[in-house]
Amino acid sequence: MDLGIAGRVALVTAASKGLGRATALTLAAEGAAVVICARGVDALEATARDIDAAGGTVLAIESDVTDPDAPRLLVDAAVEAFGRLDIVVANAGGPPAGRALDVDDRALEDAFNANMVTSARLVREAVPHLRVNGWGRICLITSVSVRQPIPDLALSNVARTGLWAWAKTAAQELIADGITLNLACPGFHATDRVIQLGHTATRLGDPADFGKVVAFLCSEPASFISGVALGIDGAAVAGLL
Ligand code: NAP
Fold it and tell me: What tens digit of pLDDT does each residue of 200-218 get?
């Protein structure tokens, strides 16, 4: 199937490793020019080299996406480098583990900022450029916790459900302009984060497959899929994540 995104310009944040990296690799393989960011330069440059070696077009920018200015600077850099922006995949590092009654105000605020406010901010910065094109695809990488809280990830549960509520509302305001807005909600995949968290008891998803699902949500034929929180979770249910 032709995803119809060759020549499009995509911004994928937090994309030097894991799910963001896999998404950027797939979008680039489908012919989109990709702008990627992360804080650590070594892994970021390694991912950029991999995209380049595979024949893709990439711009790598060292950036902490939770910095309030970062979304605007990243969007501006994409438009300056490639003349347009069509696809936005909003990702950020996940919050620390913690049970609901153990997390303090500061931890709640940090998680809400990193995994809710930052993504909404990035979408707001990008939308004017997508509207100019009359076409856009936005995908927010969240978590299966949007639908089923994970007991030891209370901070993630809070931020992801807040973002889902915001996104479902925003999607209605975008569809008339040819812009879709969806959530990709991973269950546990084999990435550094999941191995660090020790969530390795059950079958893990392949990040490369996850990237392909996100690329489909960002594709031409996915034009009527919007306001969806798509679980990519291997049939996970409570207690069996
Ligand atoms: P990962 O393997 O740890 O990779 C995280 C990536 O994000 C790295 O490239 C990291 O690079 C970058 N990053 C982290 N914080 C950043 C920031 N503030 N600004 C810019 N880049 C940042 O994580 P992952 O497993 O792919 O998870 C990605 C997201 O999906 C997380 O929010 C995670 O909670 C969520 N999620 C993952 C799974 C899973 O199974 N993997 C399941 C549910 C939810 P630097 O550290 O160098 O910045």
Answer: 767 899 999 999 999 999 9
Q: In degrees, to the nearest 5, what angle opens at C-alpha 210 toward C-alphas 197 and 132? A: 120
Cβ–ligand 1 contact at 19 (below 6 Å): yes
- Asked if residue 208 has its Cβ within 6 Å of ligand 1, the reply is no
> Residue 124 and residue 170: Cα distance in Å, rounded?
10
The pTM (predicted TM-score) of the whole model is: 0.97
CA of 18 to the centre of ligand 1 (A): 6
Atom of ligand 1 nearest to the CA of 94: 34
Residue whose Cα lies nearest atom 47 of ligand 1: it is 40
Coil, helix or strand at residue 201: coil
* Amino acid occupying residue 61: I
66 with 13: CB under 8 angstroms? Answer: no
Ligand 1: which residue has its CA nearest to atom 33? Answer: 94
Instruction: Verify whether ligand 1 is closer than 6 Å to residue 78 (CB atom).
Output: no
pLDDT digits (tens, 9 = 90+) for 106-139: 999 999 999 999 999 999 999 999 999 999 999 9
Whether the CB of 20 sits within 6 Å of ligand 1: yes
Distance CA 136, CA 121 (A): 16
161-to-39, 50, 80, 147 alpha-carbon distances in Å: 25, 34, 33, 8
